[in-house]
Write a structure and sequence with these properties.
Number of strands: 11
CATH superfamily: Bacterial extracellular solute-binding protein, family 7
Strand content: 15-25%
GO molecular function, one term: carbohydrate binding
Number of domains: 1
CATH architecture: 3-Layer(aba) Sandwich
GO cellular component, one term: outer membrane-bounded periplasmic space
Number of helices: 13
Strand order of the largest sheet: 7-6-8-5-9-11
Organism: Stutzerimonas stutzeri (Pseudomonas stutzeri)
Shape: globular
Order of helices and strands: HEHEHEHHHEEEHEHEHEEHHEHH
Helix content: 40-55%
Protein name: DctP family TRAP transporter solute-binding subunit
Structural class: alpha/beta
Keywords: Signal
Radius of gyration: 24 Å
Distance between the termini: 75 Å
CATH class: Alpha Beta
Length: 332
């Protein structure tokens, strides 16, 4: 009897200690602050900074101040290729990058950059926020990073110092800087240009020194990087769409309590559409400012450009698989 009573006492003490220890662990976890660094290539005035700061603010609020994200603009943490590689292997926490850079590790992400693949921004959001975006995210996760959200960069347009671009023939022999991705190179070669990959951080000086004649980017970069100082003509070709995936190292994410992981991922996904709207809302005034800065802006008939770049689509139907390309085209 005594033995049974003693056993019950020991058991009760054990339960009490377990409960007390559980409270201690939970309390310790609730007191811990996780500090995360997020780098991107945009200037402090760019919408990348605005949406990243908004993300950091929401994560802070939704985790009760226990996840702090510090945002580093202007490639101040390192160049994009380095940050993306670092996020996969764990030497960098988070990066807001481009699918072009991401495609160096996850080849299928390059599909997003195929010329004239997307009809408009609504089409983009339906693709990236749907099954196709989810499938691409799984391929990213298999390499060691997690897609927090497919954020926005926008459709790209050509600027140069020589002449207005109204038809593909106007690009013949022109040296155009492109990002470090094969689809960009092949697209501009198909248009007759001399496609020249140059790091974004070196782009302004390359334009200023005449190493290249032009470049292609959304209006936000034309404005915030002051390309209008070294370029005369802007042609609204909308030839390639570039998304801005936000990546976090998978190991780092999994170190966080489950509820914080959920906040990071849900908030990032939620802000994708917000970022797209932000970019679209800003673009009308940005084009106006670009003209006010002295650039000559023109629109183009896209049909000849679509025809000239059709061989690029045909080639990459074999690389990525025709089913994937067809699924994007058929998305409504």
């Amino acid at each position: 009897m005594y033995k049974n009573k003693a056993s019950r006492v020991v058991a009760l003490i054990g339960i009490s200690l377990s409960i007390a220890f559980g409270h201690t662990v939970a309390h310790a976890q609730s007191d811990k602050v996780f500090n995360i660094r997020l780098g991107h290539t945009g200037s402090p005035e760019h919408h990348f900074q605005k949406i990243s700061e908004r993300y950091a603010q929401l994560v802070d609020e939704r985790t009760g101040g226990h996840v702090k994200i510090k945002v580093y603009p202007s490639d101040s943490l390192g160049k994009q290729v380095e940050l993306v590689e670092g996020t996969f292997i764990g030497t960098n926490d988070m990066v807001l990058t481009s699918d072009a850079v991401l495609s160096n590790t996850v080849r299928e992400a390059g599909m997003i950059n195929l010329p004239f693949l997307f009809r408009d921004s609504d089409h983009v959001r339906k693709v990236l926020d749907g099954e196709i975006g989810a499938a691409l995210s799984k391929k990213v996760e298999a390499q060691g990073a997690v897609v927090v959200g497919w954020w926005e960069n926008g459709f790209r347009h050509i600027t140069n110092s020589k002449q207005p671009i109204t038809k593909p023939e106007d690009l013949k022999g022109m040296k155009i800087r492109v990002p470090e991705g094969p689809i960009f190179v092949e697209t501009f070669r198909s248009l007759g240009a001399n496609a020249t990959p140059i790091a974004f951080t070196e782009l302004y000086s390359a334009l200023q020194l005449g190493v290249i004649d032009g470049q292609e980017n959304p209006p936000a970069h034309i404005l915030t990087q002051k390309f209008y100082e070294v370029q005369k003509f802007a042609s609204r070709t909308g030839h390639i769409y570039l998304s801005s995936p936000v990546l976090i190292n998978k190991g780092l994410l999994e170190q966080l309590p489950a509820e914080y992981q959920e906040v990071l991922l849900k908030t990032g996904n939620e802000l994708a559409a917000v970022h797209t709207k932000m970019v679209l809302d800003e673009e009308a005034s940005q084009w106006q400012q670009i003209e006010e800065m002295g650039m000559q802006v023109n629109d183009v008939d896209k049909a000849p450009f679509v025809e000239a770049t059709a061989p690029v689509i045909a080639k990459y139907r074999e690389v990525f698989g025709p089913d994937l390309i067809d699924a994007v085209v058929k998305t409504n």
